[in-house]
Amino acid sequence: MTSNYKQLTQDVMANLAPLHKGVPQVMKGFGEMGKAAIADGALDAKTKELIALAIGVASRCDGCIAFHTKALAKLGATEAEVHEALGVAIYMGGGPSAMYASNAVAAFNEFLALTGNSAPSAPAQ
């Protein structure tokens, strides 16, 4: 587990640089696919990022957790929204997802602090 998700995103980007040079069309296509997948449609970008975070947790992908929590902090996600998405990930992925969900909480809080915002928690239902 990492404790510095900002650094993790920087490290991943640096580590991807050789791939951008070696297989530029593949990486360009991947980037375009990501933009298209997250674009507002029937679901808004925040909802799609919540889905992506849950999948990243269930897949045990620290880089995915870092990038999607960073996006969620910028999109104004609430702590309650992130926690509910993580609840679905835990349901779908069991105990290992619960461990990665705790990483996602730490990552979201780290990026939220960097934005200077504090996400309001939605009232429990």
UniProtKB/TrEMBL annotation:
It comes from the Bacteria. InterPro entries: AhpD-like, AhpD_core, CMD-like. Residues 24-106 form the Carboxymuconolactone decarboxylase-like domain. Gene3D superfamilies: AhpD-like (1.20.1290.10). Pfam families: CMD (PF02627). This is Carboxymuconolactone decarboxylase family protein. It comes from Comamonas resistens.
